[in-house]
Structure formats: structure tokens, C-alpha cells
Amino acid sequence: MKNLRFTSAGDAAAFLAGDEKVKLQVEEEICCSQLVNNLLKLRMEKGVSQKELASRMGCDPSKISRMEAGNDLQLKMGDVMQYLSVLDVKMHMVFEDITLPVAEQIRQHVFLIHEKLKHLVKLARQVDGDEVIINKIRVFCGEVLLDFLSRFSDSYKKLSVVSGHGTPALSGTVKSGVNTDSECVEKNLRSIPVADIPAIQPPIFSPETSGAAYR
Fold first, then answer.
1. What does the angle CA 91 – CA 33 – CA 84 come to, to the nearest 5 degrees?
2. With CB atoms counted within 10 Å of each terminal CB, which end of the chain scores lower, N or C?
């Protein structure tokens, strides 16, 4: 028994019950409890007890217990919004049409990243003079954003080769004149004053030009 290794909770449950059908039941329950698990995780990370959360929501602790013990299908939207609100967590709903061409799905995510970066620029300008926050933003620019740009450049090169477009345009510089080699990108990012980081302009897009060739 000590040497047994299971690859999932479903496998462990099936072994203990001696019935393979239990695995499917457990996996289905896990699949239907992702939102509940995230709510519970957020509450625990915030260090808030069920009793304290119930007090903030103006309800009985038993309601919080039922929410966290159930599955996603049993949750009410209003309760979820209130639960998150008292934890100071914003809720965003994303409707992703998986029938769209892959290129269009990626484009929508790029636009979302663009909006987040604009918010970061706004924050940087608001806290001008706060060295602690500004240094954290500089770290983001030098590490996270650099990693994103490097991965984007690598994927772009691979797509260019696969699509037969020859030498990728991002093999060192792009049309804007910004060098995409990792060392140069890092050097450029670290030298830019945070408050002067410009907002990224999204490409012009027309649904009629998206095409189905990128599926």
C-alpha cells in the first residue's frame, strides 16, 4: 500500500472503492467544482474565516459552508459576486467563442493584455515619486514583460518559417526600430522611465478581413 502511486484523485478513489466507475464520478465532480475551489482558495489566501466572511456579507456562516461544500452548478451569481466583493476581488467574465479562427482568439487576448498594460501605465503616472511601487513596475518591465516579448518573438519566428514567409521580420528588429534580441530588449526596458512608457496601440481589425485561413 505504501508503494502505490496515483496519477489523480479519481484513480485513488477508484482504487479505494474497488470500482472504476467511481473515477469518472470524482473527475466529473472536480470538473464541476473549479469555481468553488477558486473561491475557497481566495478566502484562505486572504486569511478570512467563514464566520468573518459571513459577517461581511451579512449572512449566516452556514451559507458560506454550503457554497464551499457544493459545486459550481449550485452557486448563484449574486452570491459569487458578493463573496468576491467582500474579499476585495474583482470579477471579470470572459466569453470565448472557440469557433472563431485561432488567430482571432489570439488577437482578443492581445487586446486584453493591451488594456492591462494601459492600466499599469496609468498607475505608474499616479504614483510618480513612490519609489517602492515604481521599482516593482520596473521589475515587471525587466522580467515579466521581457519574458513575454521573448516568447512572442520566438513564436513569431516559428510561425514565419512554417508559413513559408522566409526570414522572419522579427529576427532582430521590427518596423518600429525596436530590437527584439533578449539582451537589447532588457537594456531598453530598464532604461525607460516608467511614467514615460507609452500605451501600446492595437492593430486595426475588421471582422471582414479575419478570414478562416487561420483555423
1. 25
2. N
